[in-house]
Amino acid sequence: MPGTSPQGTGLRRSLSVWQAIGLSIALMAPSMAANINPQASAATAGRAVPLAFLIAAVGVLLVAYTFVRLCQYYHHSGSVYAFVGATLGPRAGVVAGWGLLGTYTFYAVVTSAAAGIFGTAFLNAIGVWPHPPSWAPFLLAGVAVALTLVLAIVPARRGTNVLLSVEGATVALILIVTVIVLVRLLSGSAPGGHHFTLSVFTVPPGTSFSPLFLGVVFGFLSFAGFEAAATLGEEATHPTRDIPRAILGTAVFGGIYFVLVTAVEMMGFGTSKGGVTAFASSPSLLGDLGTSYVGAWIGDIITLGTTISAFGCCLASTVGASRLMYALARDAGGFRGVGRASRTGAPATATLVITGFSVAIYVIYLAAFHANAEDSFAWSGTIGTLILLVAYVLATIGCVILVFVRRKLPVPMWQVVVPLLALVVLGYTLYRNVIPYPPSGPGRWFPVVAGGWLVVALLAVIVAPGFARRLGAALTASEGIAAPGTAAAAASAGPPAGEAAGDVTGEQTSRG
Question: Which CATH number fits domain 17-497: 2.60.120.290, 1.10.10.10, 3.10.20.740, 1.20.1740.10?
Answer without folding.
Answer: 1.20.1740.10
